[in-house]
Design a protein that fits this description.
four-stranded mixed β-sheet, alpha/beta, globular, Macrophage Migration Inhibitory Factor, 29% helix
Length: 112
């Protein structure tokens, strides 16, 4: 049950949003999860400042039910950064990737 919440100040077309969803769905396997449980939110043209300016930047917040290893997080960060950089032309050094491990996760009216 992963959730990826991507925010950027770059403009995001419908095609780019779909491409991000698809590519992040492939990348989530780095954390031992599958796209069949992945939820993705993409928000473009946010008021987002990094290093004191509004040059293209992004943050991907990834919530994960359970835990992953440091190596898995390293791989996911590399893949997530590459995907955002390629699709949205945001430089890698202007992208944050943040993780949250969640102990309780509800779905369909029940908790896992």
């Amino acid at each position: 049950m992963p959730f990826i919440d991507l925010k950027t100040n770059a403009k995001v077309s419908a095609q780019q949003s779909d491409d991000l969803k698809t590519r992040l769905g492939e990348a989530i396997t780095a954390l031992g999860k599958s796209e069949s449980w992945l939820m993705v939110s993409v928000e473009g043209e946010k008021s987002l400042y990094f290093k004191g300016d509004a040059a293209p930047s992004a943050i991907a917040e990834i919530s994960l039910y359970g835990r992953a290893s440091d190596a898995q997080y390293d791989r996911m960060t590399k893949e997530t950064t590459a995907i955002i950089s390629e699709i949205l032309s945001v430089p890698a050094d202007r992208i944050y990737v943040k993780y949250e491990e969640v102990a309780h996760w509800g779905f369909g009216g029940y908790n896992f």
